[in-house]
Amino acid sequence: MILMENGRTAFVTGGAGGLGRATVAAFAAAGWRVVAPVRPGSRASLPDAIVVEADLADETDITAAMAVAAAEPGAPLRAVVNLAGAYAGSGLVADTPVAEFERLLALNLRPTYLVTAAALPHLVAAGGGGIVCVSSRAAVAPFAGAAGYVTAKAAVLAFAGAVAVEYRKQKVRCNTIVPSVIDTPANRRDMPDADFSRWVRPAEIAPTIVFLASDDSAPTTGATIPVYGQA
Fold first, then answer.
1. Is 149 part of the annotated catalytic residue set?
2. Which of 29, 23, 1, 19 is nearest to 11 (CA)?
3. How many Å apart are CA 196 and CA 181, to the nearest integer?
4. CA dihedral sign of residues 8, 73, 113, 44
5. Which partner for 33 in 75, 124, 161, 190 could form a disulfide, CB atoms 3.0-4.6 Å apart?
6. pLDDT digit string, tens, across residues 65-77
């Protein structure tokens, strides 16, 4: 069921993932109209969102999806959440092919850039809004064997800071959350011997995202917010 109680739209990428589903549900529960792009052909089902197929590496697809988000006069686009990304270990730097390094940049930085760039004119026209990006603890505390991922997530932090500075006067805020390991089925499958009780659950992170996207956090822009749980 899609609600529009507060007369605002949120555009949420990565909505079909573990954190994405919790985030979409949290926005919907707060009365937002939610638009969520999904991979073409994926047939992802998100009952709380308007689902549009879009390749987040393709500027034309993103522009079309953003037009859907901005199409409702009674609920202008006021929030963008950049959750799309991917982790992959790549070995030590000298052992990592440049193509793999660039692939991780493309997976984690390009969608955030393209989505944000497409959304900004709509946010400015609506009188302002909030953008939330997702980096990683690895960006501020790197570990060996993942230079491509670490670099990409550090670039997301830097990009969010640039957006915050450039659009502050237009009342568009941009903040970044920095999770460690999130308790999702995929992470449990990949790390079966880990202590899951120390991981933060998606439902614990989602309210922070909604807060940063909403006017409740109006004085805050350019912030980096750790959401590590006990990890």
1. yes
2. 23
3. 9
4. positive
5. 75
6. 999 999 999 999 9
Name the token pair of 206: 């989602």
Describe the strand order of the beta sheet including 172-179 as a list of residue ranges. Answer: 50-53, 33-38, 9-12, 77-82, 129-134, 172-179, 224-227
Q: Tokens 């549900």 sit at which residue?
A: 25
Strands 77-82 and 9-12: parallel
CA 214 to chain centre: 15
Task: Look at phi and psi of residue 148 and say left if phi exceeds 0, alpha if psi is from -120 to 50, else beta.
Answer: alpha
Rounded alpha-carbon distances, angstroms, from residue 13 to 8, 77, 156, 193: 17, 14, 15, 30
Q: What is the pLDDT of residues 126-184, one digit of tens each?
A: 999 999 999 998 888 888 988 999 999 999 999 999 999 999 999 999 999 999 887 77
| Residue 108 CA: distances (Å) to CA of 27, 67, 74, 81 | 23, 23, 32, 13
Tokens of 196: 């899951």
Q: For 24-40, what is each residue's pLDDT tens digit?
A: 999 999 999 999 999 99
- What is the rounded distance in angstroms from the CA atom of residue 231 to the CA atom of residue 223? 21
Catalytic residue, chosen from 87, 149, 167, 228, is 149
pLDDT at residue number 2: 53
Q: How far apart are CA 231 and CA 229, in angstroms?
A: 6
At 182 the pLDDT is 79
